[in-house]
Every structure is written in structure tokens, then in C-alpha cells.
Amino acid sequence: MEVLYEDNHIIIVYKEAGEIVQGDKTGDEPLSEIVKRWIKDKYQKPGNVFLGIVHRLDRPVSGLVVFAKTSKALTRLNNMFRNGEVHKTYWAIVTRPPLEKEATLTDWLVRNERQNKSYAYNHQVPTSKKSILHYKVINQSERYTLLEINLMTGRHHQIRCQLSNMDCPIKGDLKYGAQRSNSDGSISLLSHRIEFIHPVSKENICIESPLPNDNLWQAIGNF
Known about the structure:
Mean pLDDT: 95
Radius of gyration: 18 Å
CATH topology: Pseudouridine synthase
Strand content: 25-35%
Distance between the termini: 25 Å
Helix content: 10-25%
Shape: globular
Number of strands: 11
CATH superfamily: Pseudouridine synthase
Oligomer: single chain
Order of helices and strands: EEHEEHEEEEEHEEH
Number of domains: 1
CATH class: Alpha Beta
Low-confidence stretches: none
């Protein structure tokens, strides 16, 4: 875990692919507990450490995660995420270049809880949610394309599902159409930048993630 920003109210850390943000049925130690322990040790705090989870990243995804260190920040950040006031930018390495260098995708996504998977439709269907993202090509290699993605909505597996639906699956994402897995079990999707007005100080916060320690990411992401 790498701490990229911290003050009295919030902490922003880099999540490695494979880590879970909060506890689940696997019983693996979540990132939230690692951050709590880090705060406890750094400040030699007695008793329990407060840490609020305001958003999540899928387990195979790497990049920025924001936590609240106070209840005031948690309440305000929850509202900001809900109202679209937190701007997140993702980078994705896809296995096929899109037909257009830049476009806005609009689909209707249906989540299948049992399969833990979403399905995209080009029209509204029962239980579907309108899903919008904007992408642009920012780099290419001989075999792969790097996309920058901005979400207008926040749906379950939205980026993974919508990119797959336009026949550009994310590298390593077997669930959504990639032909091969990545050796470390990750998918090549990075929560790259996050920008918002601080919920307490009202300063503008803009943090960028380091690139994963991976040869392809280092090659295609440094341009």
C-alpha cells in the first residue's frame, strides 16, 4: 500500500491489483484494515481507528482509493460521489483498437448478481440502468491500445462491460471477453486520476496514480 495524500479528514492510497477494498466472503485482509493499521502505527493511536469507505475498486483493478478519516468527511464524500462531484479518470489497455479514436458510449446495463456480471443493451430493458462513459485513445503499441476513460455514471463493472460491448475487451479480463488472463490475475484497468473539492477545507484536490509495476504498463503508460 502506498499513501499518496493524507490530511486530518481524508487519505488516498494506491491499491494493488488483487487487493480487496473491504472485507468479503474470501476472508482476505482488506485494504481498509491495512490503512487503519497504518494510521494507528503512524500516530500511535490507542483504541479503534475510524476509517470510512466511500467507494470501491474491483479486486483485479489497481489505482486510487479514497477513504474518510472522520465522520464529517465520510458524510460529505458520500454525497459528493452520489452527486457526481468527484471526477475519476481511468486508463485501460485494450486488446483491439476502437473504430473511433474518441467517442461517448451510451448503453443500458443489467446486473446479474448470481454471475457477478453486467450485460449491455443498446436500448432500455427491464431493470437496466443508463450507463454513459467517454473514452479517447491516448497511446498505442503494436498489439495494444491505451484508452483514457471518464465516467458519467457509476454502474457495476461499467467500464469493463461497455468496452467489451464495443469489441474492445480490457487485457486480462476473461469475464468480459479477453482471450488470455494476465499472469498476476489482474485486469489492465487503472484508476489513474481523481479530482474533487476537499469536503472540509474546500481546496481543489487532484491526485494521479503511479503506473502498475508491469512491463506493458510502464511501456505504454509513459508517453
